[in-house]
């Protein structure tokens, strides 16, 4: 097995432990004022229910999605047409489920910023366009949806404003999804198109409620946020499931690695924030718009506030027993939404500047005193990092940069006692997500 020279190891460790000033510039460029303006505009459409008015220019989901597309068009105009902006739609027929009480076109807004080196590899940030009140079939009453989910949609638009000033090797999609409250139809339709078009999806950051800091439990925090991720892909094969019994990986699927990537990026560049990795697909018994991507085998996570207030979600606007119900503007903390938008933006940028991850990572070292690795070479990578952690740790706590090699031995580290992974490192130090071993050699 090839070993990396000590001097090269020390130099490389210094180079790839440094941070990139552009990421700090991105954080500074995210504007709470612009986010507030966008949330206010979206809330002022009255209702954005999926089945609401599509003709009016001032009320309903039709007006909202045209406004969103217009904002993406303005951003594109300011960056020399760097965004490809379009609508994507699918017909959902009455009776598909109990919430679809009439035929409706579920229309998404898609803005694509093409990468310079890997234009068919996409990292996605999404927000939901639609809103609802207590009755999910009520598409006429006021449903401002200020936090759920004008906050996530406004954050996605703001991320596009900031990141459109840069060029990236991979493509970024800024996405407004519809039909979330009626059954995740917008995501289902887009995934169908992505599959048909052969898009290579790095992953999706689904932002659903990123503006509330005061929870129904009484906790107030403007630094805590949650990252939900499923443990292993829903599409894993029976052979892969059996392999996990012997080799591990119960919490090391591609979505979980995407969550760890956001966690690490946040702790590196925004250490004042407290990312909480939640080890489940979504909140207990509930769902979000990353799930259609997970269902299709793509990596996807949900980024959202840590402390929810259920009196402000899916509620008719009213005062009852001294409690003000309804998802209205006064409950949104715009600076907190700015912070979570920045978390998304720096994670998008880091992945968009990184090379692809190794497709194959093999591990060996059974009944030996050292862990051994082989991995596929990646065009665009200048080197690779091996990560390892205690089997009970949620995060990758140890790493070693090993240079531009495709095999390496960690002497003195027993394979039985840790979990391992490998990432590819680009010229500027940006890394791919970690890949958990997917093959074994002896």
Automatic annotation (TrEMBL):
It comes from the Bacteria. Residues 357-442 form the Fibronectin type-III domain. GO terms for biological process: proteolysis. Keywords: Hydrolase, Metalloprotease, Protease, Secreted. GO terms for molecular function: metalloexopeptidase activity. Coiled coil: none annotated. InterPro entries: FN3_dom, FN3_sf, Ig-like_fold, M28_fam, Peptidase_M28. One of its GO terms (cellular component) is extracellular region. It is found in: Secreted. Gene3D superfamilies: Immunoglobulins, Zn peptidases. The keyword Secreted applies. SUPFAM superfamilies: Fibronectin type III, Zn-dependent exopeptidases. This is M28 family peptidase. It comes from Aggregatimonas sangjinii.
């Amino acid at each position: 097995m090839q070993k990396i020279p000590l001097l090269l190891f020390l130099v490389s460790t210094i180079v790839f432990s440094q941070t990139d000033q552009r990421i700090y510039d991105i954080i500074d460029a995210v504007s709470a004022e612009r986010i507030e303006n966008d949330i206010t505009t979206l809330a002022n459409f009255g209702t954005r229910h999926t089945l609401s008015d599509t003709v009016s220019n001032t009320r309903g989901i039709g007006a909202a999605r045209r406004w969103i597309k217009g904002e993406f068009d303005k951003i594109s105009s300011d960056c020399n047409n760097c965004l490809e902006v379009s609508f994507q739609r699918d017909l959902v027929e009455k009776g598909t489920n109990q919430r679809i009480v009439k035929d409706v076109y579920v229309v998404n807004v898609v803005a694509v910023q093409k990468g310079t080196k890997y234009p068919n590899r996409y990292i996605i940030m999404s927000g939901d366009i639609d809103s609802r009140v207590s009755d999910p079939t009520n598409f006429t009453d006021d449903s401002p949806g200020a936090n759920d989910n004008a906050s996530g949609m406004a954050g996605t638009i703001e991320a596009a404003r900031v990141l459109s000033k840069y060029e990236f090797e991979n493509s970024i999609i800024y996405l407004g999804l519809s039909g979330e409250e009626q059954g995740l139809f917008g995501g289902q339709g887009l995934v169908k198109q992505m599959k048909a078009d052969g898009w290579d999806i790095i992953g999706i950051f689904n932002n659903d409620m990123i503006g509330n800091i005061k929870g129904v439990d009484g906790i107030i925090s403007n630094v805590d946020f949650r990252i939900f991720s499923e443990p292993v892909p829903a599409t894993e094969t029976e052979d892969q499931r059996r392999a996990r019994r012997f080799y591990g990986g119960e919490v090391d699927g591609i979505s979980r690695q995407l969550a760890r990537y956001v966690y690490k990026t946040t702790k590196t560049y925004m250490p004042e924030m407290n990312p909480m990795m939640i080890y489940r697909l979504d909140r207990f018994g509930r769902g979000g718009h990353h799930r259609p991507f997970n269902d299709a085998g793509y990596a996807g996570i949900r980024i959202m506030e840590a402390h929810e207030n259920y009196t402000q979600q899916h509620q008719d606007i009213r005062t009852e027993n001294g409690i003000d119900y309804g998802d209205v503007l006064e409950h949104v903390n715009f600076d907190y939404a700015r912070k979570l938008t920045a978390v998304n933006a720096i994670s998008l940028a880091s992945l968009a500047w990184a090379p692809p991850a190794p497709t194959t990572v093999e591990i060996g070292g059974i009944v030996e005193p050292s862990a051994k690795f082989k991995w596929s070479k990646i065009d665009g990578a200048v080197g690779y990092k091996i990560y390892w952690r205690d089997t009970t740790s949620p995060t990758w706590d140890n790493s070693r940069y090993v240079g531009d090699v495709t095999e390496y031995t960690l002497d003195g580290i027993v394979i039985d006692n840790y979990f391992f992974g490998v990432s590819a490192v680009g010229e500027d130090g940006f890394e791919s997500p970690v890949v958990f071993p997917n093959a074994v050699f002896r």
